[in-house]
Every structure is written in C-alpha cells, then in structure tokens.
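From the thread on structure requests for the teaching lab: each student submitted one protein with a one-line request. Submission from student K.M.:

"Model ATP5S synthase from Ploceus nigricollis, tokens only."
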Amino acid sequence: RVDHERIRAVGPDRAASEWLLRCGALVRYQGSPKWQQDYNGLPTGPLGKYKIEAINATDSCIMYRGFDYLDGLEHVTDIKLEKCMYIQDECLQRLSETSNLQKSLQQLKIISCGNVTDKGILALHKLTNLEYLYLSDLPGIREKETTFRVLQQALPNLELELDLE
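Reply posted by the TA:
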C-alpha cells in the first residue's frame, strides 16, 4: 500500500525511491551518474535535494498498487520496465495519466513484460513528450501494425524501436 503520510514527511522523490528499491528497482538522481540500488545507502539531506531522473525496474516486483508513488516525481526522463511480471496494461495506462510524467518522460523501454497487450501500448499516447519508445519481447501485442500506426499518429515526434517477433 502507498504510505501517503510518508510521502508528505520525506517528499515524493525519497518516498518513491524507498518503494522502488524495496521492490528491487534502481533509481538514478539528477546530476549523478551512479544507480542507487542499496536501500540502506539512500542519500540523506534536505527535503527535495535528490530528484529521481531515471528508473530501472529490471526484474523488480513493482505493481499497480504502488504507482501513486510516481505522482509527485517531476524530473523522471527515463524509465525501463524489463522482466516485470506484475506490469500490465493498467500500469501503463496509469503511467501515461500521471501528469508530471506526461511533462518529463522522454524515454521508455518495455521489455519482456508478458502481461502487456496492445491496449497498454496504446495508452502511452498521453505521454506527449516521449521521444523514444523501445518495445521488445512482448507476446501480448497482437495487432502490431495498427497499434504502432495509431501511436505514431498520436505522437509524431516519437522514435519507435521494435524488436518483436
């Protein structure tokens, strides 16, 4: 469950970092080349000092229930969802309806997430600043041509890279 008290107490970036790391994901902060992976090594400092810029959720157990943690993140430009067994269409829909991510997210990679279908990919059309989308090993996508044509029409500046059978 999302701890809204915690978000208020430590700020959205810190609370989201804690959730993501507990789930096995990595985060990278603005101005840092290093990925943060150790929960106990989370940086401390004044509220709002560390802003999440990138999320790598490879092999993590992030799921829809925790996506409220993403609402307050204003600086995330890059998200990678790889081998996330709990990521499904509703998660992508939720991601694309998060107004801060609509403004900041530029790159998204979705790889080997077996529960993602055309519906989830089509939901991404609300990410109006998305510049690059990489899709690979998504067996749930059945209407490739139609889905990608619709997405490309909605996001004409999107570079779409596909590695799908």
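TA comment: The domain at 4-163 is CATH 3.80.10.10 (Leucine-rich repeat, LRR (right-handed beta-alpha superhelix)). Residues 12-22 form the longest helix (11 residues).
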